[in-house]
Amino acid sequence: MRWSDAIYERLTAGGRSPLAVVGLGYVGLPLALAFSRCFRVVGYDTDPRRIAQLRGGVDASGAFGPEDFRECGIRFSSSEEALAEAVFYVVAVPTPVDARRRPDLSCLDEATRTVGRCLRPGDCVVFESTVWPGCTEERCVPLLESVSGLVAGRDFKVGYSPERINPGDREHTLSRTVKVVAGCDAETLDGVAAVYGRVIGAGVFRAASIRVAEAAKMLENVQRDVNIALMNECAVLFRELGIDTAATLEAAATKWNFVRVAPGLVGGHCIGVDPYYLLEKAAGTGVRIPVVQSARAVNEGMVGYVARALLDELRAGDATISPPLAGWRVLQLGITYKENVADCRNSKAAELFGELTRAGVEVDAADPCADAGCVREMYGIELTERLRPPYDLVLVAVPHDAYRSLGEEYFLSIVKPGGCVADLRSVYRNKIHALRYWSL
Q1: Number of neighbouring beta carbons within 10 Å of residue 433
Q2: What are phi and psi of 251, to 5 degrees?
Q3: In what order do the strands lie in the sheet containing 179-183?
Q4: DSSP structural state of residue 17
Q5: How far is 243 from 236, CA to CA, in rounded Å?
Q6: Which of 27, 53, 155, 256 is the most exposed place for a label (fewest CB within 10 A)?
Q7: What average pLDDT does this structure show over 322-328?
């Protein structure tokens, strides 16, 4: 029997050996829930608090409700004994950057060692964590072999399937998004494709190799980073020229091949992180990729640019106030890294809050999606429970759905006469008339 047929039979027939998902964050949890509809699943995470919440049907991110956990049959555990029962492992742990913006593979290394301790002949390990091209085969596979004492390709199989989860997106869900899959050989590719094909309604795409699949993930997010950087650069120029950026985008978008991308702050754990992995790999090979590096520099600089622009808006509203700026009061709406999610990691909105407060401005921050404890722990920011109007400026930093329905009457009720509404994503464009309006 071919290995691909054997692994599939072990997952579905007889005793139904479990499939394990290692790491139950925004990538791993959707996978575990999806796989549980077809296979017996072990959901493994090293955070006991996370495991306790999931056992109680609670997803702290808010992406899933209690109804999603009913009858899912997942065995949530932080025990390696439970993990060792599996025959098919999916590793979906974070791959962030450190304070120097260098790739931090500590979580991936630890997860790989953990799986290595559980590996037995005939098993399969599929990595979903975002890495530079070559990392799976050059770093993860030797680590698996070292810990397990087994040989990849002969004793166990290795695959790669880059995650494409878009937090907060109800349309492009796991099942509705084509899944790229790759394997260390043809029969592994067949087996991995068969397993993922059971839960991905949009189908799977068989990549030519693991390195191609890794590179495809890099390219997806680097392209978005470069496109946003271009729009940010143009937005800065257009503002200096007195040109409306949003109106310019509308005009340009009438051409059939124009790619419409809005300017903004680029944070989170994908677009704002993945380019650094490609830059690290390029540096190690002696190849320069200046477009990628320049795009990162532009997008990283946008927080400072926006902060300076907002301070200029405050000065324009009250020329009598001069530094240390302690007389100005700002309300910032939104602190998470993007709209309609609770995740605050690598939040540029939080960085913007810091820039304004360091300038001496008094800032209240509110966010209906964020967990106040997480915000406090990550950034030392206390979310306000009660607004304290009137404000000199209201900054809509993250356009959560809860904010999109607000009208000018609301802003008039909390902003001083002659004050300003700053709208980073142009949600209220052409809707604010009685107050000053600023946007990128």
Answers
A1: 7
A2: -70, -45
A3: 75-77, 41-44, 19-22, 88-91, 124-127, 157-160, 179-183, 204-206
A4: P
A5: 10
A6: 256
A7: 64
CA distance 264 to 268: 13
Q: Say which of 72, 118, 140, 270 is annotated catalytic.
A: 270
> How far apart (Å, rounded) are the C-alpha atoms in residues 174 and 281?
28
Query: In terms of Cα–Cα distance, which of 274, 253, 254, 232 is closest to 94?
Result: 274
Q: Are 245 and 263 in contact (CB under 8 A)?
A: yes
Token pair, residue 107, equals 């979580």
> Strand locations in 148-283, DSSP E?
157-160, 179-183, 204-206
CB atoms within 10 A of CB 2: 11
Neighbours of 334 (CB within 10 A): 28
Kindly report, residue by residue over 74-120, the tens digit of the pLDDT: 999 999 999 999 999 999 999 999 999 999 999 999 999 999 999 99
- How high is the pLDDT of residue 78? 95
State how far the Cα of 403 lies from the Cα of 367, in Å rounded to an integer. 10
pLDDT at 177 over 90: yes
Q: Is the dihedral of CA 283, 285, 289, 292 positive or negative?
A: negative
Nearest to 180 by CA among 197, 198, 167, 157: 197
Burial string for 313-325 (b: 16+ CB within 10 Å, else e) reads bbeebeeeeeeee
What pLDDT is recorded for position 296?
A: 97
pLDDT band per the 50, 70, 90 thresholds, residue 9: confident
Nearest CA-CA partner of 222 in 309, 155, 294, 313: 294
The torsion region of residue 122 among left (phi > 0), alpha (psi -120 to 50) and beta comes to left
Q: What is the DSSP letter of 95?
A: -
Give the ranges where 269-423 is alpha helix by DSSP (H).
274-285, 290-300, 302-317, 348-358, 372-379, 401-404, 408-414
- How far is CA 297 from each of CA 42, 226, 234, 267, rounded to the nearest angstrom? 41, 10, 15, 13
Query: Could you tell me the domains of the chain?
Result: 3-207 (3.40.50.720), 222-300 (1.10.1040.10), 301-439 (3.40.50.720)
Cα–Cα distance measured from residue 172 to residue 193, given in angstroms and rounded to the nearest whole number: 20
Query: Does the annotation mark 270 as catalytic?
Result: yes
The C-alpha atoms of residue 269 and residue 330 are separated, in whole angstroms, by 27
